[in-house]
Specification:
Length: 234
Amino acid sequence: MTPKHVAIIMDGNGRWAKQRGKERIFGHYEGTESVRACAEYAVEAGIDYLSLFAFSEENWARPEAEVTELMHLMAKSILEEKTTFEKNNIRFMVVGNRSRLSADLNRDIDEAMAGTSANTGLTLVVFLSYSGRWDIEQAAAAWAAAGAPQGRFQDFLATAGIPDPDLLIRTSGEQRISNFLLWQCAYTEFYFTDTFWPDFRKNQFRQALDEFASRQRRFGKTGDQITQENNDSK
Ligand code: FPP
């Protein structure tokens, strides 16, 4: 089965660059090529949502020069990928603590989101200045302000309206969630690969989808119950 929503922790850009004797930013630039390749393959594979963890709340603590370069790269990519979005009917979204982003970057994001809001293909969600704990805290505050327990808690998360991820991929051999979609990954399948993000392209993505298709998701039930449910729905 094809997952409806795939989330990716794009890791290993710095190490990829270091292996080649280059500056870390070189890895981030090459990583944007993987972003395009994976977005295009997600369209081809019929995935509805592709979530990319591009910059965490914790990433603000990186050396200032790297933060500046990453923010510049985000703005550049958003402007340059407009044709990719149009060609592939992609709806573009940014989720995160946008109050920490510059006014210029926020303006570019707003423009790209408004310009692609009517697109009906893949929804590409880029997580910027995001952390799972930040999201839960801001949702709890908003929920309380709305007079909790009015409404469902998840409707106050920054990801409201986006289904929970079916599959979470992390590249570069690290096996942890690093404060990404903490609430949303309750029943998500995890896939780890040693491949560094700049080398993660169509074939590597396809391999992850094949592995996902071979798993049985039980959501707390027994294997027999799931087999029965599958037979009943045939
Ligand atoms: C992790 O590698 C990667 C990042 C913190 C940045 C991800 C950004 C991009 C791929 C570029 C732009 C993205 C979009 C959506 C246009 P790392 O720096 O942690 O690598 P390391 O673990 O090897 O040091």
